[in-house]
Amino acid sequence: MPIKDILLPLVGDADAAAIAAIDKCAAVAGDIGARVTAIAVENEVLVRPKVTISSDLENTAAAEAMRSVSNAHGLLQAFDAAANRFGVRNEQRLSRLAVADIPTHFAQSARLKDLSLVPVRAHDSRSEKVVETLIFESGRPILICPEELAAELPVAFDNVVIAWDHSAPAARAVADAIPMLQPAANVRVVTATDRKTPAEQESGMALVNHLLEHGIKATFEMVKIDGSSVGKVFEAYVKAKAIDLLVMGAYRHSRLNEIVWGGATKTVIGRPPCWVMMSR
Asked: Of the four listed, 62, 63, 86, 95, which is most buried by Cβ atoms within 10 Å?
């Protein structure tokens, strides 16, 4: 199914990195001809009862409320400018929510979209919470845009790698990514393993054959983990091969397991090395 209807969740500061990411997201949407619904959220600010000794506390609360509103408007203004520049059909919404309610609001809004296009700040707990909630509660795939790399990210995904482990999340990610894979010039199926078993070889080649039925010519290889972690292996692979898009299943292991011990999903969400498409 082609990607025609996209959610763009916007929260945080309207700084240069965020604006660059919004610009790149709009460019991608324009390139594939999709409509974008941009939702910016103002944080509800808790105002304490007026039992203050000084007016400073009251002024601080007012300033914080104004900053929240300004951030949301600034994010939408940046999107509006980018949408006009790239000819993106769009709808814009401004919501006001408590911080704890923001991720669920985005997930519910994403359920009737083909894809959520999510700007992500490196090692940022708010970004991670939004991404995780979209993964577990939206039922739709996400495409992550790393803010720190936004200026250099490509608009078209010519060089794509699929992180393949024969798991259900990986299979779902491949299915959701078909529209992104079909126009790609180079698609690699990669299994990170130290074992290199016949079963892993057969699984990778079976995926290559499956993709061929969709008109996608792919290659398969296995790369060694060699004492590293799967997340770090793919991070290095992305940099070494100049990958435009990494496709991977999210949370093969339990979320608690990854929080405690670490895992590929947590590593990639924490600092995406390129565009990343995830499903579960």
From this structure: 86
Is 159-279 in the same CATH topology as 5-151?
yes
Checking DSSP bridges between strand 115-120 and strand 90-97, what pairing results, if any? unpaired
Sheet holding 186-192, edge to edge: 90-97, 35-43, 5-10, 115-120, 142-146, 275-279, 245-249, 159-163, 186-192, 218-223
CATH for 159-279?
3.40.50.620
Does the predicted model carry a pTM greater than 0.85?
A: yes
Helices H, strands E: what count in the chain?
9, 10
Residues 6 or more apart whose CB falls under 8 angstroms from that of 229 comprise: 262, 263, 264, 267
CB 10, CB 76: distance < 8 Å: yes
Statement: 5-151 belongs to CATH 3.40.50.620: yes
Read off the pLDDT of residues 91-147 as tens digits, 9 standing for 90 and up.
999 999 999 999 999 999 999 999 999 999 999 999 999 999 999 999 999 999 999
- Measured CA to CA, the distance from residue 146 to residue 120 in angstroms comes to 5
What is the chain's alpha carbon radius of gyration, rounded to the nearest angstrom?
A: 20
Coil/strand/helix, residue 110: helix
Burial, 13: exposed, middle or buried (Cβ in 10 Å; 0-12, 13-18, 19+)?
Answer: middle
Domain range annotation of the chain: 5-151, 159-279
